Amino acid sequence: MNISFVDIIDYVGTFAFATSGIRLASKKNFDLFGALIVGFVTAVGGGTLRDIMLGKNPFWFNQSSYIIITIFALLFFVLFHKYISKIGTTLFLFDTIGIGLFTVVGFHKTIECGFSLWVATLMAMFTGAAGGVIRDILLNEVPLIFRRDIYALACWFGGLVYLIGIKLNVPELITQIACATTVITIRICAVTYHWRMFVLRGHPRPAIAK
User: What is the pTM of this model?
Assistant: First the structure.
């Protein structure tokens, strides 16, 4: 079986995202099975949304590798959770790596299906960001993209870099690396330097005199 560079990115992203879901589930005191489910949904959620929107069966229906990788992520966390938990940025790092790699996968797979570049840019964003949204909802957290954090926007910029690379005929491998690097760099800079989106504020309703 031939494994492409995108497949490797997909598997590494799956492990990273599954670990981020399991790590957050552990903070909520989930049992092993619950943590496994959260990790799996985090890992495949974005790609599932992408495939449904593109009119395809979700990619993991015919591949057991994704649940196997999630199980390995759970075992990894169980064995090394004492060391992982001591690192305060663990969840952030795994989540950031996951969205960067999945942005590449989302764009590539959309192009493979014959869709236009602008659709691929949107699907790259959904693939990168949606898994984290589903994870946060399952764990009763406000999803990052609904806060002021630059999250989905980082994925969109990554997709835009991929699009520009194709337009300029840049070698695909370099384009994919640039795409993932853009997402990860923007996300790290946003957290480090406190970059925030503008907040939409409604006007308070005037008090009614009694």
Answer: 0.88
